[in-house]
From TrEMBL:
Binds 2 Zn(2+) ions per subunit. One is catalytic and the other provides a structural contribution. InterPro entries: Aldolase_TIM, Class_II_FBP_aldolase, FBA_II, TagBP_ald_KbaY/GatY. GO terms for biological process: carbohydrate metabolic process; D-tagatose 6-phosphate catabolic process. It comes from Gilliamella bombicola. This is tagatose-bisphosphate aldolase. The lineage of its organism: Bacteria, Pseudomonadati, Pseudomonadota, Gammaproteobacteria, Orbales. It is an enzyme of class 4 (lyase). The active site is at 82 (proton donor). SUPFAM superfamilies: Aldolase (SSF51569). Dihydroxyacetone phosphate binds at residues 181, 209-211, 230-233. GO terms for cellular component: cytosol. GO terms for molecular function: tagatose-bisphosphate aldolase activity; zinc ion binding. Pathway: Carbohydrate metabolism; D-tagatose 6-phosphate degradation; D-glyceraldehyde 3-phosphate and glycerone phosphate from D-tagatose 6-phosphate: step 2/2. Pfam families: F_bP_aldolase.
Length: 284
C-alpha cells in the first residue's frame, strides 16, 4: 500500500463542503490513534509531521509505519510534510515516498515566495505529490517555527489570486487570524477576508492553528471554503495530560503498554471530535 497525495481528497472535500482533518503525529502510538479512529469513522485523513518530527522519529521509520498502517487497514491516506522550508530536504522526502507537502516560504517577500514555491511545484508534480503553500503569515509556535505576533500578516485576497495562478499550487494556507499553539483569549477569525479569498481563488483552502478555535468558527470557516483543518497542540496536550495523570495515580508504573493506554484514549477523543466538526466522517 502506498501513501497518497492530498489532492483528490481535498478536491472531494471542496465539492462536498466538508474539510479533511490533518493531525500532527510523532510516533507509533499517535499514528495508531489517528489511523484507527479515522478508519473507524470512515474519514479521509492527513497525517502531518514537521521537520522536527521527521528528525526525531526518522524519515524511514515514519514512512514505514504509515505504509504498514495503510496496508493493514486497506486505507490509503496522506503522510504530509508540515511547514517544511528546505528544498533539498523536501526533495529527499518525496523521493523516499511522501506525496503530500507544504513548502513554507511565507517569511520571504512575495516574489521570492513565488519563485521558491513554483520551483517546488515543478519538482513535486513530477512525482504526483500535492503542494500546499502559505501566503500571509500565521503567528504563534509550531515546533521550531516561532512567529512573533508583530511579524504575522493576514492573506491579501488579490495577492492570493496572483500567487495561486503563478505558483500553480494545489492548496493555499490562509492567514485569517488563527495562530499556532494556544490562544490567550477567544480567537478572532476574519471571515469577510476568507470569503473574499474564496471568491478569487478556486483551489482548496487550509486553516492552520485550529487547536482552541471554537466549533462554530471552524464550521463557519468550512462553509466559506476551508477544506483542510490542521490540529496539533490539542492532541499533544490531551496525550501528555493523561500520561501525567496516570503516573500520578501509579507512580511505580513502568510498562509503556499500560501507561500509554490512557494517553492514547485521551488523544482519540480529540481526534473523534475534530472529525465530527470537520464533517468528514463517512466520506471515505
Ligand atoms: P495547532 O498546533 O495550533 O493546532 O496548529 C497546527 C497546525 O497548524 C499545523 O500546521
Amino acid at each position: 500500500m502506498y501513501l497518497i497525495s492530498s489532492q483528490e481528497m481535498l478536491k472531494k472535500a471542496q465539492r462536498e463542503c466538508y474539510a479533511v482533518p490533518a493531525f500532527n503525529i510523532h510516533n507509533l502510538e499517535t499514528i495508531q490513534v489517528v489511523i484507527d479512529t479515522a478508519k473507524q469513522m470512515q474519514s479521509p485523513v492527513i497525517l502531518a509531521a514537521t521537520p522536527a518530527t521527521y528528525s526525531y522519529a526518522g524519515i524511514q521509520y515514519l514512512i514505514s509505519i504509515c505504509k504498514t498502517a495503510a496496508s493493514i487497514h486497506h486505507f490509503p491516506f496522506a503522510l504530509h510534510l508540515d511547514h517544511h522550508e528546505n528544498i533539498s530536504d523536501i526533495q529527499t522526502k518525496i523521493e523516499a515516498g511522501i506525496r503530500s507537502i507544504m513548502i513554507d516560504a511565507s517569511h520571504h517577500p512575495f516574489e521570492e515566495n513565488i519563485d521558491i514555491v513554483s520551483k517546488m511545484v515543478a519538482f513535486s508534480h513530477k512525482y504526483n505529490a500535492s503542494v500546499e503553500a502559505e501566503l500571509g503569515r500565521l503567528g504563534g509556535q509550531e515546533d521550531d517555527l516561532i512567529v512573533d505576533h508583530k511579524d504575522s500578516a493576514f492573506t491579501d485576497p488579490d495577492a492570493a489570486k496572483e500567487y495561486v495562478e503563478r505558483t500553480r499550487i494545489d492548496s493555499l494556507a490562509v492567514a485569517i487570524g488563527s495562530a499556532h499553539g494556544l490562544y490567550k483569549g477567544e480567537p478572532k477569525l476574519d471571515f469577510d477576508r476568507l470569503a473574499k479569498i474564496r471568491n478569487k481563488v478556486d483551489i482548496p483552502l487550509v486553516l492552520h492553528g485550529a487547536s482552541g478555535i471554537p466549533e462554530q468558527m471552524v464550521k463557519q470557516s468550512i462553509s466559506l471554503g476551508i477544506c483542510k483543518v490542521n490540529v496539533a497542540t490539542e492532541l499533544k496536550i490531551a496525550f501528555s495530560d493523561a500520561l501525567k495523570q496516570d503516573f500520578k495515580l501509579h507512580p511505580d508504573a513502568n510498562d509503556p503498554r499500560h501507561y500509554m493506554q490512557p494517553a492514547k484514549a485521551a488523544m482519540k477523543k480529540i481526534v473523534e471530535d475534530k472529525i465530527r466538526i470537520c464533517g468528514s466522517a463517512g466520506k471515505l
